[in-house]
Structures are given as C-alpha cells and as structure tokens.
Amino acid sequence: MVDIASRVWNHKWKIDPIVRSLIDTDFYKLLMCQSVFRNSPDTHVTFSLINRTTSIRMAELIDEGELREQLDHIRSLSLSRGESTWMRGNTFYGKRQMFRPDFMDWFENLRLPPYHLERRHGQYELTFEGKWPEVMLWEIPALSVLMELRSRKVLEGMGRFELQVLYARAMTKLWEKVERLRDLPGLKIADFGTRRRHSYLWQDWCVQAMIEGLGDNFTGTSNCLIAMRREVEAIGTNAHELPMVYAALADTDDELRNAPYKVLADWHEEHEGNLRIILPDTFGTTAFLEGAPDWLAGWTGIRIDSGDPAVGAEKAIEWWKARGEDPRDKLVIFSDGLDVEKIKALQAQFAGRVKVSFGWGTLLTNDFRGLVPGDALSPFSLVCKAVAAEGRPTVKLSDNPNKAMGPGLEVERYKRVFGVGQQMPMQVEV
Q: CA 113 to CA 102: how far, in whole Å?
C-alpha cells in the first residue's frame, strides 16, 4: 500500500502526474463517448469549467504554469496496450466486447484536442472546443487536475510529521464511515468520486478501504484505471451531457420536448440490462416521467441526482406502478450529495420497496473537512459542462434550481416547453 504522506513529502508530487492515463476517467464517459462516436461524431461542442463555489478563487490559488504543465501532460497521453486489452476483452455488466472494434480503433489513436485557458476575476476560464467525441473526454481529467492542484497548494507548506498525522486522521475518518455502513442490511454501494477527489492516490486508497471493509456490499468504482488495477467492476451508465446536447440541437419546441427520449432511444439500441438506467432530471423529473414513452417503463431503473432524493424515489415508484411495473423489480440509484447518514436513511426508507444502490462521490474521496486550519481542504463544487453545441447554448434545469445553467432566456424557454413550474431551491452539496 502506498504511503501517501511520504510520497507528498519526499517528492512534492513531482513524480506523480495528476492524470496518469486516458482511462483515469469515469466509466460513463467512455460509454457515452462510444454512443456519441456512433450517432454524432462530427457535432461541434464547447465545454467550459464552472466554479459554483466562487469564494474559492482558483486563479489566485493555483499557479498557471503548473496547471498548463498538467493539462499539456494529459494531451501527451494515449491508450496503452494493457488498457486497450482491458477495454476490448473485459466483461462489463455481464457483456463481453462492450466497446466496439471501430470505437476502439479510434480511441487507441486519440490525443485530446487543445484547450484554451485565461484568468478572469480571480478564476480560470478553461474551455475545450471541437468534435464532440474528442472534447467530451476532457471533462473528468480537467476536474481532477484542478481539484488536486488545489490540494497540493494547501499541503505544500506542511511538514513531514504534519502530513503523516493529516492522512492518518483522514484514513481514520473514512474507516469510521465504512464501519458504520458495513452492517447495513442489503447495502450496495460504489465509488463515484473521481471528478472531485482529493487526489488519485487518495481515491485509490479509498477504493481499497471499501473493498476490505465492505466486501460484497461494495459493487465497484466509476474510475476505469482503478477498476482495472484493483480488479473490481467499472460502474456507470450515462449523464446529463447527452440530453443537454441533443436538446441544444433541436430546431423546434416539439423536437426539444422529445430530445431526452431520443437520447434514450439511441442508448436502447446499444445497451441492455443494468446499463438501461434513466437519468430523468436534466429538464425536470416530473415532466420527464409524465411524457415518457411506455417502453421506458421496462428499463432496469432510475438514477436520482438532484432535488430531494426521497421525493424523487417516490415519484419513480408511483410512475412504475402507473405503468404496470412492480417497483420491487426496479433499481433506484442515489448519487447526489451522499454521506453516511443520508445513505442509512434512504436505505431504511426504500429497502423492500425497490432495489436500492448508491453512488458515493465527493464525501467518500475528498472528505478532509475539519482536518486543516481554516478548513482549507473542504470540498467545493466545480463542474465542467457542455455549454454549446453547433453554436447553440445548452441548458440544464435540474430538480434543484441552484444547479440550473444556461442563458436566462433559454432557461425560461426550456421551462415553458417542459412545463417546469415553481421549484424548491436546495443547497448544492458537493
């Protein structure tokens, strides 16, 4: 097992590039990339960094030269032979050759496209433009770099013993969480913490702790590189990016209203079983479920990623019942702002009513709250989103208006088209 504190002290991270591989990313990005490669390979998109926690002034905290060095390193990466073999030959969700030969041929020759970086008002403006299958793969590495550079900046002034104590405390904190979860009946939980992790080495340690502490209750990790190296399941399906871009490309209100279902129709052609998971909240869960075609009720489950998770699960249960489905045969995946108490409460509320699973993110892989002066390692909300497609702005409404994004007039248009009324703002938990 890596001694993380010694690695920090002895090398000041110089031998540790933040992103080590093109598969040091979330599994859903690769699945979506293959879908985009098949259905929209030439669509031009723009991704942009968005810091929701504006009190953390990234451009004043992180050295621009170090940031460029890490981003340039990512552009030098290509798929290794071992990584290609893992993707081509491994079984994912019970299916061999999940990734098609034509996609793999393309991916094996890929280098990520250029980036554009500027400073503005104490923040970094980081954007990526180009063909959708290429540009979309910048999202997770870009977030990982910025999150870890911030961690490194806080740690660089610490002494050797101070670092040892810090990581000992963080390890104890995580292990206590694992102990509180290990006896929870029927628990199924995965690591979803790549995008806002403290560091790669720390995420890898957290996964190993979950493997040992939770046994079969730990279902895997979203991080492909760690899944390969630790021989656990790679977990993930799809995200808001697909309906956001499909919607931006719609020419009429009717096409816009149908865009989320067009995404899932394309997905339906490619995947089955536990990959058929609905993410309904991009433009509001209520409107999505009310307008959903009957064939979607036959899908395996729903992921709840915004709003009140219990309310979202109750909506899903009622929707399945109304469509003649038995909710006890369906899967609800909770993935927003989770920590131990919320996990325990949701498990207790829905056990026996639906199959329940959890994607545990930031507060698994980046919970250093209260461990350094000024809470300087407290996690914060940083995202990298598709903001335009073929020159048209994207929109996300969410079930939490504090997560909404897009130009004001377009947001209002989307609310009208999707029939989104008054929403209850909720604090955005990382």
A: 20
pLDDT for position 401: 84
Q: Decide: pTM greater than 0.85.
A: yes
Phi, psi of 39 (to 5 degrees): -100, -30
Q: What is the DSSP string of 22-75?
A: TTSSBHHHHHHHHHHHHH-TT-EEEEEEEES-TTS-HHHHS-HHHHHHHHHHHH
Helix (H, G, I), strand (E, B) or coil at 181: helix
pLDDT at 284: 95
What are the pLDDT digits (tens) for 194-242? Answer: 999 999 999 999 999 999 999 999 999 999 999 999 999 999 999 999 9
Q: For the beta carbon of residue 161, count every other beta carbon within 10 angstroms.
A: 10
Helix axes 160-181, 200-214, angle to 10 degrees: 40
Q: Which of 379, 384, 380, 423 is nearest to 402 (CA)?
A: 423
For helices 139-155 and 64-75, angle between their N-to-C axes, nearest 10 degrees: 140
Question: Which tens digit of pLDDT belongs to each residue from 264-286?
Answer: 999 998 888 889 999 999 999 99
pLDDT of residue 157: 86
Give me the pLDDT at residue 13, please.
47
Contact 397, 284 (CB under 8 A): yes
Q: Name the token pair of 355.
A: 């199959």
pLDDT digits (tens, 9 = 90+) for 29-40: 999 999 999 999
Q: Is 195 exposed, middle or buried (0-12, 13-18, 19+ CB in 10 A)?
A: buried
